[in-house]
Every structure is written in structure tokens, then in C-alpha cells.
Amino acid sequence: MPLSRNGVIAALVVLLHVAFIWALQSGLLMRAAEIVVPAEILTRFVDAPAPQAQPQPPAPPAPPAAVKKSVVKAPARPSPTPLAISDPAPSPTPVSGAMTAQPVSTPVPAQVAAAPASPPAAATVQLPSSDADYLQNPKPAYPPMSRRLDEQGKTVVRVFIGVDGLPQRPEIFRSSGYERLDQAALTGVMRWRFVPGKRGGVPEAMWFNVPINWVLD
After folding, report:
1. The whole model's pTM is what?
2. FRET label pair with 179: which of 10, 33, 35, 160, CA 20 to 30 Å apart?
């Protein structure tokens, strides 16, 4: 008796289910899936992902180039032209027409070379004097012992004369060679009076040399 169409279909479905279950149990289905799946997909699934490249740190910015500042010189201001000031007094003969301002020239002072200062003239010095007539200075006394021994010579006494004409400090400037004659000269000069020395007409204390000649008559 021939099978109906519906029966054949139902038998095929049952048979497919049985084959599917048997394939799952025997691992045939997994093998078929491996064959069907492309090799490229399996390679991407099995291989580990490649490590990502670490980002490089950004390079430091380059230093800004030095900018040269250009100095702009301000234009020189023109010097103001001096204006001529009219005289308030009326002119006897007025001149018609516009007045033109004339530039006033500033006189430049001439450089005068300073003359070297001349050194002051030396004041005139007048030495003391002992031979004025009104002084009446006696000659020093000749020592008696020097007369007997025939002692002679010349003694120069250096004496400091004050502004009042009085001798203050006598000393032997040149000896006669005999002490008695030198001492007699010192004693005699200290009794004298002098005309004081002067500098520029003004009395001044100064040293003065007094010569004494010892000569036997």
C-alpha cells in the first residue's frame, strides 16, 4: 500500500531530528561547522589581539624666536622761529606792507683763553740796621787780656731782632779764633738797639748778622 505524502514528510522530519541528535552526540556537527566556517574567521578568533602602540610624548615646543624691537626715533621738532615784536611807539614814517619775521641769531660767546695768573710779586724785605745815628751803639769793649796777648780777628754775631728793635737770641755765626773776643762781641751786641727789619713796609722779626772787627790800635 503506497505511503501518503504527509506521511513521507513526517518520516523525513523525524529522521532529520534523529540524525541531528546523533550528530551532536558523536561530534560530527562540530566538525562540519569547522569546515564551513572560513579559516580567516577562525584565525581572528584564535589569535590574541596585537598590543597597541604606546603614544609618544609630545615634543617640547620650540622656544620663541627673539624678536628684535625696532626703535623708532621721534622726528625732531623744528625749533620755533622767533617772531619780531613791534615797537609800541608809533613810527614817524609808517611802512605799509606785511612784516616778515626775521630769524634772530644768538651770538655765540667767544672762548677767551684764560691768561695764566701771574705769581704775586715778592714783598720787598728790608734787613734790620744797627748803624743809625740816633741809636748810638758803642763798640764792644776790647778785653784787656786780649790786648796784652795781641789777640785780633773778626767775630760775626747772628742775632734775632724783634719788631721792637731789641736783640733776643744771639749766637756766634763766625768765630774770631779767640773765645774772649767772641764773648765780648756777644755781650756788646746784646746792649745794642736796632732798626727792626720790614717785609713789604711792615715790621717783622728776623735774624741779622752783626760783624765785629777786633783790631789793636
Report:
1. 0.44
2. 160
